[in-house]
């Protein structure tokens, strides 16, 4: 790594130019011949991306950044903080350390953390940054994580792995066996060094597919930030054969909305109803979990249809998702659509409905936006309906 980037005048140049167009900067003459111009521009790009995602790094002085891709692939501080709540003990080894954001937060819950990174330059960057962040209990090792585990030759309280996909071939199903490291093949090896393994995967991984490849799964955590699923966490415990906990968390500015249930345990049948006074739409983490029947039974609210995944009640409740007051329910027909929507504004959502949002807008000349929220769905009588709602703000 070229530590010349840490010179004060170069660091000031990076900070001053954060909001400037990179394409414009690229045409300028390099004011620092001792540093590769492309490398310097990459520092500006990466630091700008860190502003919202990694505020601790962004606000600290003399931090070095990796490539743009490495910043995009790293955990955000919000998800890393949540992850750290799942671990404890004396020791943790991260087999796929990357930029080290997860380890920074693990180090606040675990006495000693080992950061493994096969890329030598990235390992040097991370070690430097931990020094600047005044972190004393993370130890950086460069090399193959399997070799590092063998060399350490000790038991850890936790092993953490964030396997990367080998390729992004279109149409290819995302399976853990297609990632590096190949966790399914190496799981027995990992259990020789820890009773607890935490695996991070992208939200694209299907839960049933993950369960088909892994064993001893104790819990699956589905983490969303501002209603966008960011990652799945697979908590494995050696020899565990019990029921699997599904825990969802939607991290927002003022709160974390959680919802959990056990997979395939005492499933209660949902209740159904025609639309009542309020409409409830689960957040994206719950939608990913597939726990739709459990939502109905836990919150005592009715589903509109087995496959609609929208809920209704005459009672307003605290709910992990969006809440609406239903102003009107109309049949999906030409007469009613022309009367209610033609050349009007509306926010449109479809659930269990044969037409796309784009087609609906085009067909009925509905403009986007406004204060009306309209759900095109199917009710318990299999009738196509439109729910015209106003959104209820949750403090």
Characterization of the model:
The protein has 395 residues and is of the alpha/beta class. The protein folds into 3 domains: 3-70, Arc Repressor Mutant, subunit A (Orthogonal Bundle), CATH 1.10.10; 74-262, Vaccinia Virus protein VP39 (Rossmann fold); 278-392. 31% of the residues lie in helices and 29% in strands. Strand 16, helix 15 and strand 17 (367-378) form a beta-alpha-beta unit. The longest helix is centred in the N-terminal third of the chain and has 17 residues, at 37-53. The radius of gyration is 25 Å and the shape is globular. The two termini are 47 Å apart.
In short:
The chain has 395 residues and is of the alpha/beta class. 31% of the residues lie in helices and 29% in strands.
Task: Outline the fold blueprint.
Elements: H1 8-16, H2 22-26, H3 37-53, H4 55-59, H5 68-73, H6 77-84, E1 89-94, H7 101-106, E2 110-117, H8 120-132, E3 138-142, H9 145-152, E4 158-161, E5 164-165, E6 179-180, H10 183-191, E7 196-201, H11 207-213, E8 217-225, E9 228-237, E10 245-251, E11 256-262, E12 278-282, H12 284-289, H13 292-299, E13 302-303, E14 311-313, E15 321-331, H14 334-341, E16 345-350, H15 357-364, E17 367-378, E18 384-392
Parallel strand pairs: 1-2, 1-4, 2-3, 4-7, 8-10, 16-17
Antiparallel strand pairs: 5-6, 7-9, 8-9, 10-11, 12-14, 12-15, 13-14, 15-18, 17-18
Protein name: Class I SAM-dependent methyltransferase
Domain PG-1098 ferredoxin-like: 278-320
Organism: Flavobacterium luteum
């Amino acid at each position: 790594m070229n530590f010349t980037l840490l010179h004060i005048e170069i660091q000031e140049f990076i900070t001053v130019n954060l909001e400037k167009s990179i394409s414009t900067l690229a045409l300028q003459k390099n004011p620092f011949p001792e540093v590769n111009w492309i490398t310097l521009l990459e520092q500006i790009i990466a630091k700008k991306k860190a502003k919202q995602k990694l505020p601790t790094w962004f606000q600290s002085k003399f931090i070095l950044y990796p490539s743009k891709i490495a910043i995009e692939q790293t955990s955000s501080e919000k998800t890393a903080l949540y992850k750290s709540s799942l671990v404890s003990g004396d020791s943790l080894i991260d087999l796929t350390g990357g930029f080290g954001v997860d380890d920074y937060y693990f180090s606040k819950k675990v006495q000693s953390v080992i950061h493994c990174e096969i890329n030598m330059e990235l390992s040097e960057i991370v070690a430097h940054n931990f020094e600047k962040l005044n972190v004393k209990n993370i130890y950086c090792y460069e090399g193959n994580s399997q070799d590092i585990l063998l060399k350490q030759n000790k038991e850890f309280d936790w092993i953490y792995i964030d396997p990367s996909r080998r390729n992004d071939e279109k149409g290819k199903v995302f399976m853990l066996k297609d990632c590096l490291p190949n966790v399914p093949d190496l799981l027995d090896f990992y259990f020789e060094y820890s009773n607890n393994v935490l695996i991070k995967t992208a939200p694209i991984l299907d839960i049933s597919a993950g369960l088909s490849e892994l064993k001893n799964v104790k819990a699956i955590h589905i983490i969303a930030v501002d209603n966008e699923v960011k990652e799945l966490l697979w908590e494995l415990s050696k020899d565990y054969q019990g029921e699997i906990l599904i825990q969802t968390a939607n991290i927002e500015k003022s709160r974390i909305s959680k919802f959990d249930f056990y997979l395939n345990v005492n499933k209660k049948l949902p209740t159904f109803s025609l639309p009542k006074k309020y409409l409830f739409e689960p957040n994206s983490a719950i939608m990913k979990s597939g726990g739709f029947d459990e939502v109905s039974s836990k919150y005592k609210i009715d589903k509109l249809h087995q496959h609609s995944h929208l809920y209704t009640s005459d009672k307003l409740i605290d709910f992990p998702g969006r809440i609406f007051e239903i102003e009107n329910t109309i049949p999906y027909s030409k007469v009613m659509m022309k009367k209610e929507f033609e050349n009007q504004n509306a926010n449109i959502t479809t659930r269990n409905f044969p037409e796309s949002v784009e087609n609906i807008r085009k067909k009925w000349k509905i403009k986007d936006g406004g204060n009306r929220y309209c759900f095109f769905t199917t009710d318990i009588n299999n009738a196509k309906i439109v729910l015209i709602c106003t959104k209820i703000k949750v403090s």
